[in-house]
Design goal:
Elements lengths: L1 E5 L10 E7 L11 H7 L8 E4 L4 E6 L4 H14 L7 E5 L9 H13 L17 E5 L10 H26 L7 H15 L2 E5 L1 H6 L3 H7 L7 E7 L7 E12 L8 H4 L7 H16 L4 E11 L11 E3 L5 E3 L7 H15 L4 E6 L3 H7 L3 E5 L3 H15 L2 E4 L4 H5 L8 E2 L8 H10 L10 E5 L5 E2 L9 E2 L4 H11 L7
Parallel strand pairs: 1-6, 2-4, 2-5, 5-6, 9-10, 9-13, 12-16, 13-17, 14-15
Antiparallel strand pairs: 3-4, 7-8, 8-10, 11-12, 14-17, 18-19
Helix pairs in contact: 2-3, 3-4, 4-9, 5-9, 7-10, 9-15, 10-14, 12-15
The structure holds ligand BES and zinc ion (ZN) (2 copies).
Length: about 500
């Protein structure tokens, strides 16, 4: 989608369609011209409700407020509603509520890019969005003089963010037999060559050399060999060093502790954390942020077979800790244990984050739309919470560790068990399992983000389509931008 921003008045812009946002049901606003038709059409101006008056070339969408988060989802829904229409160009006013605040423009640009996304790869008949070009007018009823350069930057960063998120969505939505560890590794190499990133791929031989036995055990029964991907964005004088690790289970059948049929479907999305890492690396390289960022992906397929790892096995992780396997479906934490150790060996970071579709328990506790953030120290947790809830349009909440739940991971015969002995608090116990693989240097610098809820939802919600949402990408890009003090505050 081509987005341009201009100081021309909205009336001076030539376009097939004008998109008008009805803020908080304010039908008295001069932009709103079709009140009589609204009555007939039953349009109430509810958040994300749309009303297309095709003959007049006007599309209305309701937004609860002028906050960037509401504008993002309202605009996305408006764009999505245009699929199947023949409008090729549209114009929209900027709805900026404060002269210094360009956050709403960022939200708008993200909404346009995220709303236009569709995954049609496997459809013989593609439904085409004809809309190619959107012009945003900064000339507004409030009469502020906006700084056009900062407006342009907000729109540009919004587009980069949306494209990075859509890139992640594409990877996650791809069928498991078309996207297995080797394919993910090749995608990373291609991304690196296009975006000036360094890229190292660890194959089976190298993974053995590195003693990543827990990860290798999970991938053993698959016909696709495991890979660990390491991508690096390294600017000249970085302000900070950040490591981000993603769970990249290209399929999670549950292994010998096999999932039931209803729970297995959608498990192609178990690579969402790793796919988010790839999207984040694309985004930061395009924004060219002055932060050194290391992205690691543990790309593995959890399958069944005669050589599968099994409940009762004892695995020795990279850091020498022994793990009693009591459930092969708790595989993500085994993969992450080794990748966490490897990443910390390779990089001494200022901040360390991991993102994973780690537990069904997190979805039970928080619902489909919200990520759970855990760790030992407030700082990295609060950074992630702020970036998610206040700036990016993602939703996240904190889940606290405690010493009593930690005890439930005890094993009689190994250092730790891969599942807890209680059916409750599964998201927290999984996070506490990971904490066993965080070294002293990183303990206060680490946060674990369980994205099992929002990563893949089988209906559209706000700016997210049915299927992969690209969870984690927007949150982490905002976090990294904030670290550079470049992010808009609102
Ligand atoms: N990949 C799943 C978690 C998951 C479930 C993600 C639903 C998205 C939606 C993970 O590997 C898993 O199977 N976890 C088990 C852990 C249990 C065996 C302790 C779970 O949550 O049931
Ligand atoms: Zn599993
Ligand atoms: Zn899994």
């Amino acid at each position: 989608m081509n987005i341009t921003i201009t100081t021309d008045t909205i009336n001076a812009i030539l376009a097939d369609l004008e998109i008008i946002i009805v803020i908080d049901k304010n039908f008295g606003h001069p932009f709103v011209k079709d009140n009589e038709t609204f009555k007939k059409a039953g349009f109430k101006g509810e958040h994300e409700e749309t009303c297309l008056i095709a003959a007049e070339g006007r599309l209305y969408v309701g937004s609860e407020s002028i906050k960037s988060t509401d504008i993002r989802s309202a605009v996305a829904v408006a764009i999505r509603s245009l699929k199947g229409t023949s409008f090729e160009s549209a114009k929209i006013a900027s709805y900026v509520s404060h002269p210094k605040c360009t956050a709403v423009l960022r939200g708008m640009a993200e909404g346009i890019g995220l709303g236009a996304y569709q995954f049609e790869h496997y459809k013989s008949k593609k439904s085409i969005l004809e809309l190619q070009k959107i012009t945003i007018s900064t000339d507004e009823y409030h009469g502020y003089a906006l700084d056009i350069e900062s407006c342009k930057r907000a729109v540009k960063n919004g587009q980069i963010t949306a494209e990075a998120t859509n890139y992640t969505r594409d990877i996650v939505n791809t069928a498991p037999d078309d996207c297995y560890p080797e394919v993910m590794a090749n995608m990373a190499l291609e991304l690196a060559s296009k975006h000036n990133l360094a890229c190292t791929i660890l194959d089976t031989e190298k993974l053995k050399e590195e003693n990543m036995n827990a990860l290798l055990a999970v991938g053993r029964a698959s016909r696709h060999e495991s890979r660990v991907i390491h991508l690096v964005h390294k600017p000249a004088n970085p302000k900070a060093v950040v490591t981000i690790i993603g769970k990249g289970l290209t399929y999670d059948s549950g292994g010998l502790s096999l999932k039931g049929a209803d729970y297995m479907v959608t498990m192609k999305a178990d690579k969402s954390g790793g796919s988010a890492v790839m999207g984040i690396m694309k985004g930061i390289s395009e924004m060219n942020l002055p932060i050194e960022v290391h992205g690691f992906v543990g790309a593995v397929e959890n399958m069944i077979g005669g050589n599968a790892y099994k409940p009762d096995d004892i695995l020795i992780a990279k850091n020498g800790k022994t793990i009693e396997v009591r459930n092969t479906d708790a595989e993500g934490r085994l993969v992450l244990a080794d990748v966490l150790c490897y990443a910390q060996q390779e990089v001494h970071a200022d901040y360390l984050f991991d993102m994973a579709t780690l537990t069904g328990a997190c979805v039970v506790g928080l619902g489909n739309y919200t990520s759970g953030i855990m760790g030992y120290h407030d700082k990295p947790i609060e950074m992630a919470l702020y970036a998610a809830n206040k700036a990016s349009g993602e939703m996240a909440t904190r889940l606290d560790f405690n010493r009593y739940l930690k005890k439930t991971l005890k094993s009689d015969i190994a250092d730790i068990s891969n599942i807890s002995n209680t059916r409750y608090g599964g998201a927290v116990t999984a996070g506490m399992f990971l904490s066993e693989f965080i070294d002293e240097h990183h303990k206060d610098r680490w946060a674990h983000i369980d994205i099992a809820g929002p990563a893949f939802v089988e209906h559209s919600w706000g700016e997210n389509p049915s299927g992969a949402s690209g969870a984690g990408v927007r949150m982490m890009l905002r976090l990294l931008e904030k670290l550079c003090n470049e992010v808009e505050t609102h």
